[in-house]
Amino acid sequence: MLLRWIRQQLGFDPPHQSDTRTVYIANRFPQHGHYVPQRFADNRIISSKYTVWNFVPKNLFEQFRRIANFYFLIIFLVQLMIDTPTSPVTSGLPLFFVITVTAIKQGYEDWLRHKADNEVNGAPVFVVRSGSLVQTRSKNIRVGDIVRVAKDETFPVDLVLLSSDRAEGTCHITTTSLDGETNLKTHYSVPETLVSQSVSRLEALHAVVECQQPDADLYRFVGRITVTQQEEEIVRPIGPENLLLRGARLKNTKEIFGVAVYTGMESKMALNYKCKSQKRSAVEKSMNTFLLIYLGILLFEAILSTILKYAWQAEKKWDEPFYNQKTEQERNSSQILKFISDFLAFLVLYNFIIPISLYVTVEMQKFLGSFFIGWDLDLYHEESDQMAQVNTSDLNEELGQVEYVFTDKTGTLTENEMLFRECSINGIKYQEINGKLVHEGMTDDSPDGSVPPLSREELLFLKAVSLCHTVQISYEQPGDGPGNPFPNANGFSSQMEYYASSPDEKALVEATKRMGVTFIGSHGEVMEIKTFGKSEKYKLLHVLEFDATRRRMSVILQTPSGGKVLFTKGAESAVLPFTKSGEIDKTRVHVDEFALKGLRTLVVACRHFNVEEYEEVDRQLHEARAALQQREERLAEVFSFIEKDLELLGATGVEDKLQEKVQETIESLRLAGIKVWVLTGDKHETAVSVSLSCGHFHRTMNILELVQQKSDNECAEQLRQLARRIREDHVIQHGLVVDGASLSLALRGHEKLFMEVCKNCSAVLCCRMAPLQKAKVVRLLKTSPEKPITLAIGDGANDVSMIQEAHVGIGIMGKEGRQAVRNSDYAIARFRFLSKLLLVHGHFYYIRVATLVQYFFYKNVCFITPQFLYQFFCLFSQQTLYDSVYLTLYNICFTSLPILVYSLFEQQVHPHMLQSKPVLYRDISKNSLLSFKTFLYWTLLGFCHAFVFFFGSYILMGEDTSLMGNGQSLRANRQLMFGNWTFGTLVFTVMVITVTLKLALETHFWTWMNHFVTWGSIAFYFIFSLFYGGIIWPFLHTQDMYFVFVQLLSSGSAWFAIIIILIACLFPDIIKKVIYRHLQPTSTQKSQFETNYQGIGCVDSMCCYSEGENGCARLGRMVAQVMGRYNPAYANRSWSDSDPFYSNDRSILTLAPMEAAHC
């Protein structure tokens, strides 16, 4: 038992093992002795990762899973175990710094999660215990407790509704925090418990709930409630309509009582806390590859040094010189152990070639840089008051590498605001004019504004539309209470507002209201409509809910005359095949015409039941809904049995307007080299029409179709024909249309052929797509041999799988809920914002991180190569060139801040230039700035600079140079002046200045922060060295650097050497840049010239001169004169009121304090 309890506490042995759980209401367990209560989770929500007890071991374990951290830990342990040339502090302190910074960041984030958890878990709630209403904390609720929730409160657990203050036992809730839907949803209690509206009645209630074990699906719940009344057991099925989910809010209902069935981390809301799969960017993959290469260089240098040491010591005089005699133990020690020990010592000496602070700097850059997206006012949507949101900062640079965009249509390219336009009734087309139903082609010519009488077919169609839905009504001043079931029942009060989960439903119900058939509301099982002022009440017998498989929903009603009727509406492919009467062919033609106009279509039908038919339908529905096993499958069979032999009434056409600037955004993406695929569930004609109107398809495009394929062979043959047509047609651009059924066949056995066709098409449209098919298409492109970077963007729950599958997932804050936003990496309010997100933010993030990674490797090669070269001059004795403090602080203090600030603020081109010239995006595509060629250039540059540092210092200072600043000869003091530490300090000084100035040369966008950290880092190095070497520190065991730096700086020769070496390192780099910029400029560099000449000069430098001329402009003019490219027209170019200036740029990225008139 103890072992099982321990396993349960550790989460390895969950307390419940059966498929169902039994909940005794008010925890009245059976009295017989052999009953063992099931164990359930408590009601605490835990979103935190750590506790006080496990934070240190768990965090350390996670951090040391990183290969770089683990590597430095091994080096640190080696330094502790064997006699190494450098102090263990040199590896231990940087490692401690990195681990500590990361731990503090993660600990702070987890503390915030703990704080939020405590607020939720400590919230006051009311439960029924021992015959009275008791206040307690949310975390103390147990499964089986009866909980009371008042109006506008949030449900603290998942509850099965027992009763409400309404006579019919219903309540209204909103689930905005769960799925983003703002409509009011009605939930029901079973007839046997709805009368238990007081604590005393609830205390007398004997009932048991049997239901499935916790499930993350918000819309699925299978169970039954057994109520014992007068020793008789009554069994009722319960489903999602009886379950009140934690996180939802009670509306328009004074109070409810419910029994807790799922608590704490087993509630559906908690189970939907999704741990996203870890996405890794292309830059991170390149970084890991480079780390392995540098690890190889490190091993090579260590092995070579060890071999050369033993080759050198083969001579007796070098093996045991007179000043370093070996002990007897050293002479008799194992040669193999000595070799291993020396190898490890060299490994420790050169280990700084692996940059330990690279990871922490990249993490800080990503974390801090991600705020720019949220702060960018150009990505702020004023109407909805929504700003862009970053859910993960790990993929910032991936925004600059996108090659394919997969987008949903409805709510992403369109507004998802529906407006009724046309309908077809009994084979005749109608349109709405001034709230009247008018035959197409006719005008509303009734002078008195009277409404013409409707025919029987027209009236039946409007009634079907106004009754077949799940719309709820809200009033500004609702008359609560059973005495007034239909407040404002005239139906025309301006206070009445419809709420619907689907914008289509809302648009249709509002349209029928304008035409004279008004839905007044639902009260229990009664639905009321007013037909031109005359009230009609229908009894709601059953609702056949919409699902993605059937693609239709139905209601079964009892008419005022007592007849039973089924009203159905859905996609034409889901309804027309099941109709047997009505104007089927004409309606199909009208539906296609609606679709060609870009309208969303729904088909409406009905079926009348006689008494025997309805009794059979009612029996089958009751049996299927009461089933605990395979309830969904049994319900699907019954729904298919009911929804057949339909009488076609007509079809509707609803317009979904395009979002603003969709066409311009798609065109920008295309110019940037990004291919756009539209994946939608809409029908073929509608999707093609919208694609043409939004610019996804051009009118001049050759549109190819792969639709309505019935078999594998037919599909394969069609694909071959399309491939042949693409090869033979010399049209510049092709577009491809695929439907869901044909796509399934294409993906089953002809993936290569299908991909060949798709890749030769400029635009692809996939219609009639299921959510999983969307994800399959993304995966197909993602895993193709070229491995392109993919981005998926959508606004609905049906886009979640696609968003999670793509390299970068973007959610649109639309009207279809928040699931897409919750599961995305980034969230924006409108599709048009995608242009700036990719072309500007993506461009900036990528060049910043790419330069950061390359620069880190470069400066560490500069750092450790002189140490390697020095071994040739000290007989590979493992003598260190630099002081231990310098070794420790090089990456932490002296060179860390300039690259961090660069990686946050760098802009090579003005943001407006990037948006106006999308082709610049191609310059950075396919990870071009981190290609092997670029990596090789930075690495060789590091080696070259390191050779110049070392041999320059050696040649200039190591031979006959013996001049102090005053010119006196100090040949006798050479050993003091130019010893080991002096030489190493000179090399180190030149190195710190050179790598800092090298970054300054790479910087295009200077802010005051760049100036501060660049010149401040150099100044800090000098000030620190003066203090470190100028004072005798009592806590230091040895102080080799005492007065070394002061004496070095007092030498004019040293200053001369520093200047000469700096010029030797950086001047060739400047010449190379000038030549390449003028002879082989990239598109980005050309745009920099353009930007300067258009007056946006401050992008290049924030050192502004009078009249707005920047610092680089004068130098540029001089270079242009030298190279014969000087144009006097640009000589005095400066800011003025007449210059083009982008005054509407509200981006936080423009950190320069620029104004329209002057800089």
Quick take:
The protein is of the alpha+beta class. The protein is built from 39 helices and 35 strands.
How would you characterize the overall build of this protein?
With 1159 residues, the chain is α+β, with helices and mostly antiparallel strands. It is built from 39 helices and 35 strands. The strands form six sheets. Strands 16, 17, 18, 21, 22, 23, 24, 25, 26, 27 and 28 form an eleven-stranded mixed sheet that branches. Strand 2 (124-129) and strand 3 form a beta hairpin. The radius of gyration is 38 Å and the shape is globular.
Q: What is the total tally of β strands?
A: 35
Cα-atom radius of gyration: 38 Å
User: Poorly predicted ranges (pLDDT <50, ≥5 residues)?
Assistant: 8-16, 477-494, 960-977, 1095-1116, 1118-1159
Largest sheet: 11 strands, mixed
What structural class results from the helix and strand content? Answer: alpha+beta
Shape verdict:
globular
Q: Which range best describes the helical content: under 10%, 10-25%, 25-40%, 40-55%, 55-70% or over 70%?
A: 40-55%
**Beta-strand share of residues:** 15-25%
Quick check: average pLDDT?
79
Q: Given the structure, what is the number of helices?
A: 39
Oligomer: single chain
* Termini separation: 77 Å
